Amino acid sequence: MPGRxxxxxxxxxxxxxxxxxLRLAGYQVATYPSAQQLLDRLPEESEPGCILLxxxxxxxxxxxxxxxxxELGSTLPIVFLTGHVDTSTTVRTIKAGAEDFLTKxxxxxxxxxxxxxxxxxxxxxxxxxxxxxxxxxxxxxxxPREHQVFGLVVRGKLNKxxxxxxxxxxxxxxxxxxxxxxxxxVQSLAELVSLAERLGLLAAGK
Amino acid sequence: MIRLISFKGLIAGLLVLLAPTALAQERRPHSILVLxxxxxxxxxxxxxxxxxxxxxxxxxxxxxxLYGENLDLNRFDGTAYEQxxxxxxxxxxxxKPIGVVLAIGARALExxxxxxxxxxxxxxxxxxxxxxxxxARLGPPPDATGVIVKTPLTDSIKVARAVVPDLDTVxxxxxxxxxxxxxxxxxxxxPTATAGLRVVQVIGEKMADIRKLVAELPERSAIIYSSIYxxxxxxxxxxxxxxxxxxxxxxxxxxVAAETFLAPGGVGGYxxxxxxxxxxxxxxxxxxxxxxxxxxxxPVSGGVKPIFNWVQMQRWNVSESGLPExxxxxxxxxxxxxxxxxxxxxxxxxxxxxxxxxxxxxxxxRMRRNAEIESQKRMSELAHxxxxxxxxxxxxxxxxxxxxxxxxxxxxAETAELILQSEIPDLGEIRxxxxxxxxxxxxxxxxxxxxRGFLKNAPFExxxxxxxxxxxxxxxxxxxxxxxxxxxxxxxxxxxxLRIKGDPVQLQQVILNLVVNSMDAMATIPYGRTVIGRTExxxxxxxxxxxxxxxxxxPPNKLAQVFDPFFTTKDQGMGIGLSxxxxxxxxxxxxxxAENQNGGGAAFHFTLPLAA
Lengths: 206, 612
Prior knowledge:
The structure holds 2 protein chains of 2 kinds. A 5-stranded parallel sheet of chain A has the order 2-1-3-4-5, with helices on both faces. By secondary structure, chain A is α/β, with parallel strands linked by helices. Chain A folds into 2 domains: about 5-130, Response regulator (Rossmann fold), CATH 3.40.50.2300; about 140-200, Orthogonal Bundle (Arc Repressor Mutant, subunit A). The two termini of chain A are about 40 Å apart. Chain A contains 9 helices and 5 strands, in the order E-H-E-H-E-H-E-H-E-H-H-H-H-H. In chain B, the strands form 5 sheets. A 6-stranded parallel sheet of chain B has the order 2-1-3-4-5-11, with helices on both faces. In chain B, helix 15 packs across helix 17 and helix 18 runs antiparallel to helix 19. Classes of the chains: A alpha/beta, B alpha/beta. The interface of A and B includes residues 21, 24 and 105 of A.
């Protein structure tokens, strides 16, 4: 899978070696001698990419950069590289969503495997996010009345109950419901509920 | 005449016998009249008198009075002189009761015997300095006893043979025979006593001639001296002066027969000992005072002893072993040890004490040296343990430092492999890769080398090193650790080289321990963690190094304890890091201390002497 790998490492020699190897494998490569430099010019997330991050770098450390990126809502998967494995750092970074945790020196096969998985994940995350955005747009296109009906339907309310709640006839509710199904482009009530859940509308408690 | 004397003596003896002993003792006055044959000046007779006086004076009982008369019979004789003496004594002693008459010399004895009936009837006579022949001539006198001296010529010949082993000539030197008192008998002895020897008699010659003669005596000869009282030209000489004059010129040893002749130059002989002659006679007189009767005390012989002059023995090369048994040697020059006995002993004692002291100090020094070596060994071992502990604490930094180049090498190698598999390999790139690999390999090697040097359990050894360089290396080693712990590490070294004598590994360890200690101290503060190292010249003989941090500082009451072993504020610390730092600095003759900075944080300082 093509993509751009962002290499953050304070060691010139290591950055150069990585760049060579990754280019040869067909990736585009961007290198940063410090974590701050990556923050200064945040990578474009629209294209497939991932970050290859050293744990021990002067200034902002690897795990600290990870935290900052998470705060910024970055979707770029992070593969950590370290010269020295220590369990607490590993656990902390994995919990914070690291894609992988590799030890230097790392074999290409292992490295490329991790990068491939990271890129695939990024692609998946991106397409998922794309679909959700689409669905949000569909939901946003509903009229306020339709939105009300949608909210109550996905919570399992019957037409009669909804009509009673909204002070309308059962026939009117039926028409709204039909309109909602049509606008959101779903065939069944099950699909509608699933969509609402993915957009996080059920958890809201409305 | 002899019969008459005996008869009178018998009567006197009977009288004494009749009287009860105790009564006689009580009646007998405790006084002795000494009739000395010699003149007053004669040293020989003087010594006899002093020997006598000494014994009498030491006698415990009632005090004994001594009267002395020098009759000077050696120079004066004749009936008229004798009569005048008798008269003089009669008048002088008519009111003085006399207990014992003590005659010194045969002539004095003769006079005493003649005068007794008139002057001291019934008074016993004790004699001394009477030779065998005179004694025999006088017959055992009645109511008289004493000391007989025996000085036969045979004794002198015997001595001459001992002094000159291959003796063939004896030169007998003396005054006219009738004048030489106890030696008078020699003239009769000569034929028998000197059998087998050539005899030269020098009798009554002028002293000047004698002195010429004795200077040219043949080898294998010895002089036998009796006595000389005149120089042969009318001048009077003391016999001991005469022997001295002869000895001055003599080319052969002189055998003498009187103790007083030894000092002026006699080699020795069976000599008359005047003090013994006097003492022996006095003892007999005291026995009479104690109640014994003169008749019951048989005359004793004595007053003669073989005595030799050590100085003359040396001159004539006489060996001590050849001398007669029981010989006494006089004037022996003391050997160095004898002369300086106390000084020598003192010196020997001082030397012994000194030697003992030196040995003790050497022993002490060795013990101290051993203890020093032992303590250095222990310190080195402990320091090694501490380095191992520090190293494991710093293991993540070390692993990172090694794995960094190793990671580059592996990746580069794999890349190169792939490039080579392509149709047209980019050799330029391959070259670059290989150069990178080489460089990274050296980097990794350097890390390992430094680490090994640091972990080596080497004994304490000093060499001249630049402290700035040690600081630089140590700070580089610590930089990763500082990075990963979010600590800013600064180093300000003095522009000049700081040459000191020390063990580089141990000094690195001191710096490492201090910096790690500062890093640990700052674990709790959220930001602004800084460690500053500084080296500077302190005067012109010492270097000062300080490590300061921005941590919480040291509680003032703990400042003095931070260097104590096992003092720690950390949960996992052993408390040996700073203690070892101090031990190492002290071993380098330096000083180490801790203080709190005005602006907060702790500062550790140590000084080291500059290499001369």
